[in-house]
Amino acid sequence: MKIALAQLNYHIANFESNSGKIRDAIAAAKEEGADLVVFSELAVCGYYPHDLLERKEFIEQAIDQIHQIAHACVGIAAVVGGPSINEGSRGKKLFNSAYFLYDGKVQAIRNKSSLPTYDIFDEYRHFEPNRDFELVEYKGQKLALTICEDLWDEQPTQNEFGKDKLYQRNPMAELSKLKPDLVINLSASPFSYNQESWRKDILVKNALKYQLPIVYVNQTGAHTELIFDGGSCFVQADGSIPVEMAYFKEDFCIVDTEKPVQQKQEEHDYIAKIHQALILGIRDYFRKMNFQDVVLGLSGGIDSAVVCALAAEALGSENVRGVLMPSRYSSDHSVADAIHLADNLGVRYDIIGIQDMVDAFEKELSAVFEGLPPGVAEENVQARTRGILVMAVSNKFGNILLNTTNKSECAVGYGTLYGDMNGGLSVLGDVYKTDVYKLARYINRNQELIPENSIVKPPSAELRPDQKDTDSLPDYDILDGILFRYIEMNQSPDEIVAQGYDRETVLKTARMVNQNEYKRFQTPPILRVSSKAFGFGRRMPLVARYS
């Protein structure tokens, strides 16, 4: 069978755009002689529409579009993801479904069995799990239609209880009893740099276990926090992967399941993949929200430099504006480094000194603060003054403010609410500081865009004389190792100490993470590039007393 894999970038609830892309791909597949074209999970409405699924008109539009798409399926079949109505008397009102379209109409609907509720997933909130297993017969072939998690019966994570088995039934075990010839998997699998290889492992494991070829179609594009990297592929029954599609962009190919033509992707290291993911995340957020211009504070430090470089690459330097806001504690080289960066990137910048404004605040507060030594409150006045100024520029010119806080700072609360934590989108909130340095080097791989001094100088908030980040935090090499184990790997302080980390440092770090949940609750949406980003994939109570 000749099967077209259509890896597309969808827009949540943009039915006209999504169905247009789908119909165009069907036409292209038909022209190239394909028998069948496969799309990704919930393709017609975009993944994930959350509580839009509770709106009757949303479901009606989605299903109507499926039937409109079916009219294009004459002389070719298609498998398209979308919601369907649960006609039974019990359970949730919807299924997450794969529609089999042929001869101008919907011929069959197969529903997702394994509904994830971990991390960023919340499908059981809206969907009823499938309990009836049937194949689809087409052109003499018996097809097992599965949806994403239906192949993930055994999670690859290892914890103290052993490997996770999240579901009561294994859909592939049930479908294999019906003797299928081919497995088709519609997926919406988001990118995470430290779990990316899991998907291939899962596909290969299933192909080998059931001795069946698998057509896997993922989507690409970004939906606010979630970034989908594509990487659709064809896996043969022997576990080999002759066909692998592009990452972080739309792609289309036709696979002859009997004689697949080799198509491989170049391997990149994880920093290059994070770079691609962040570019896609920024670009799609602005394109899908119909925004164009950005503004950000430029301090001369590495975080703002990396965000500025990413924004310029994603949106064009003409759409990026930097604001330099020096105080009495800003070093000459910080201003010079920020100007150097702006000139290298070709972005517009403004310089607004904050010292007179800070002095005015301190004068008005002097009676209230009388007799008290200066400290964090005065430092934060500076950060909040900058927040006011950069938001004023945002409001006046319609530029969206990009937040530049990295994951290390976000984790331990090393930032000022309503100051440097402002923003419409957090670009580095899921990137540890040590990886920010690597990103800077990657950005400079062909030419120096980020000034060398911004990379090599000791990081500092510059809110008091001679301030360094290490005055308050461990060295980032140590801090990030602890944070990764505590957040991504969910290890206890005792487990982390057993790996050679200093006990006091580990306990202090864990306390800072726990105590700053309230700050993170108020941060802008964070582009997710890891397996455990701050945001709706990591839900912690604000008032817990957990140690």
3D architecture notes:
By secondary structure, the chain is an alpha/beta fold. Helix content is 35%, strand content 18%. The protein has helices at residues 15-31, 56-70, 171-176, 196-210, 270-288, 302-315, 332-345, 355-365, 376-397, 407-412, 433-443, 452-456, 476-488, 493-497, 503-515, 517-520, and strands at residues 2-7, 36-38, 77-85, 94-102, 105-111, 136-138, 141-147, 154-159, 162-165, 182-186, 214-217, 220-223, 226-229, 233-235, 243-244, 251-256, 294-297, 320-324, 348-351, 400-403, 425-426. The strands form five sheets. A six-stranded mixed β-sheet has the order 5-4-3-2-1-16, with helices on one face. It has a six-stranded mixed β-sheet with strand order 6-7-10-11-14-15. Strands 19-18-17-20-21 form a five-stranded parallel β-sheet, with helices on both faces. The radius of gyration is 26 Å and the shape is elongated. Residues 158-162 have low confidence and may be disordered.
Helices and strands in order, then pairings?
Layout: E1 2-7, H1 15-31, E2 36-38, H2 56-70, E3 77-85, E4 94-102, E5 105-111, E6 136-138, E7 141-147, E8 154-159, E9 162-165, H3 171-176, E10 182-186, H4 196-210, E11 214-217, E12 220-223, E13 226-229, E14 233-235, E15 243-244, E16 251-256, H5 270-288, E17 294-297, H6 302-315, E18 320-324, H7 332-345, E19 348-351, H8 355-365, H9 376-397, E20 400-403, H10 407-412, E21 425-426, H11 433-443, H12 452-456, H13 476-488, H14 493-497, H15 503-515, H16 517-520
Parallel strand pairs: 1-2, 2-3, 7-10, 10-11, 17-18, 17-20, 18-19, 20-21
Antiparallel strand pairs: 1-16, 3-4, 4-5, 6-7, 8-9, 11-14, 12-13, 14-15
Helix pairs in contact: 1-2, 5-6, 5-11, 6-7, 6-11, 8-9, 13-15
